[in-house]
């Protein structure tokens, strides 16, 4: 007669499931046209447009590059990480994801991480190649804090993608909502368009987006020096995204089980 699994065994099982889900999602991302457009082409186009009118100085160039990368990451998150559960339902594999031994939340965040890493990697390659081609004088004054910011970017985008994936699972019009959410954030997210340029009654919108605070942190880290406040706000928003995503996922799965609609698109 065997007893309950030890805590160490449970943690190892959860870690294995998490990493396996991430690797599986990375493999499914290969050749994804949405990833190619939003993570490969978009940063190139935005950078060319941003620096076409005037060659920015080194400190301003770093800020533009950071804003472009995070804008492209939002587009990639909406269409790839945000569509994880929608794709599982379309392929008829959602039931397997939520009925396994390990927590379905572990599977969700693992898949979201896999999609995010693929998107971030593609954006970095496209951005670095464009910066070199345009010969932008990008300053890297604090490389350690830039690395910290990049880590927070991956975690925050993963959590945000999981949240969007849960929300898109609740509606049959996920593709429409993906398109509806992408471009307003481009304008109102406080990334390429500064927050103080927005109308006063819309300036609260960027405050809710962790990428906006990460952009401020990375811009400071590339110039005069990092500030702890935007990093702390970004982390707090990431935690909030995770809590809402977890609760929404469990609620939506329970509803789908009650209706018997886990495998129905």
From TrEMBL:
<keyword id="KW-0472">Membrane</keyword>
<dbReference type="InterPro" id="IPR052902">
    <property type="entry name" value="ABC-2_transporter"/>
</dbReference>
<feature type="transmembrane region" description="Helical">
    <location>
        <begin position="33"/>
        <end position="51"/>
    </location>
</feature>
<protein>
    <submittedName>
        <fullName>ABC transporter permease</fullName>
    </submittedName>
</protein>
<dbReference type="Pfam" id="PF01061">
    <property type="entry name" value="ABC2_membrane"/>
</dbReference>
<feature type="transmembrane region" description="Helical">
    <location>
        <begin position="144"/>
        <end position="170"/>
    </location>
</feature>
<feature type="transmembrane region" description="Helical">
    <location>
        <begin position="228"/>
        <end position="249"/>
    </location>
</feature>
<dbReference type="GO" id="GO:0140359">
    <property type="term" value="F:ABC-type transporter activity"/>
</dbReference>
<dbReference type="InterPro" id="IPR013525">
    <property type="entry name" value="ABC2_TM"/>
</dbReference>
<keyword id="KW-0812">Transmembrane</keyword>
<dbReference type="GO" id="GO:0016020">
    <property type="term" value="C:membrane"/>
</dbReference>
<feature type="transmembrane region" description="Helical">
    <location>
        <begin position="63"/>
        <end position="85"/>
    </location>
</feature>
<feature type="transmembrane region" description="Helical">
    <location>
        <begin position="117"/>
        <end position="138"/>
    </location>
</feature>
<keyword id="KW-1133">Transmembrane helix</keyword>
<feature type="transmembrane region" description="Helical">
    <location>
        <begin position="175"/>
        <end position="193"/>
    </location>
</feature>
<feature type="domain" description="ABC-2 type transporter transmembrane">
    <location>
        <begin position="23"/>
        <end position="218"/>
    </location>
</feature>
């Amino acid at each position: 007669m065997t007893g309950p699994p030890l805590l160490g065994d449970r943690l190892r099982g959860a870690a294995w499931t998490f990493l396996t889900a991430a690797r599986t999602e990375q493999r499914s991302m290969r050749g994804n046209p949405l990833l190619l457009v939003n993570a490969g082409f978009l940063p190139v186009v935005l950078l060319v447009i941003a620096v076409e009118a005037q060659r920015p100085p080194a400190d301003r160039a770093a800020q533009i590059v950071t804003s472009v990368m995070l804008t492209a990451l939002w587009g990639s998150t909406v269409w790839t990480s945000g569509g994880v559960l929608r794709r599982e339902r379309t392929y008829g594999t959602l039931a397997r994801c939520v009925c396994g031994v390990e927590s379905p939340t572990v599977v969700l965040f693992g898949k979201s991480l896999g999609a995010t890493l693929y998107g971030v990697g593609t954006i970095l390659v496209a951005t670095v190649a464009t910066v070199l081609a345009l010969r932008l004088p990008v300053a890297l004054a604090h490389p350690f804090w830039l690395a910290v910011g990049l880590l927070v970017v991956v975690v925050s985008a993963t959590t945000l993608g999981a949240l969007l994936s849960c929300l898109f699972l609740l509606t049959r019009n996920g593709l429409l909502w993906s398109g509806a959410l992408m471009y307003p954030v481009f304008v109102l997210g406080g990334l390429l368009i500064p927050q103080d340029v927005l109308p006063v009654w819309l300036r609260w919108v960027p405050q809710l987006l962790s990428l906006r605070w990460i952009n401020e942190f990375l811009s400071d880290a590339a110039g005069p020096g990092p500030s702890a406040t935007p990093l702390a706000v970004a982390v707090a928003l990431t935690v909030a995204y995770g809590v809402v995503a977890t609760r929404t996922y469990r609620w939506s799965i329970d509803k789908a089980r009650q209706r018997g609609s886990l495998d129905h698109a």
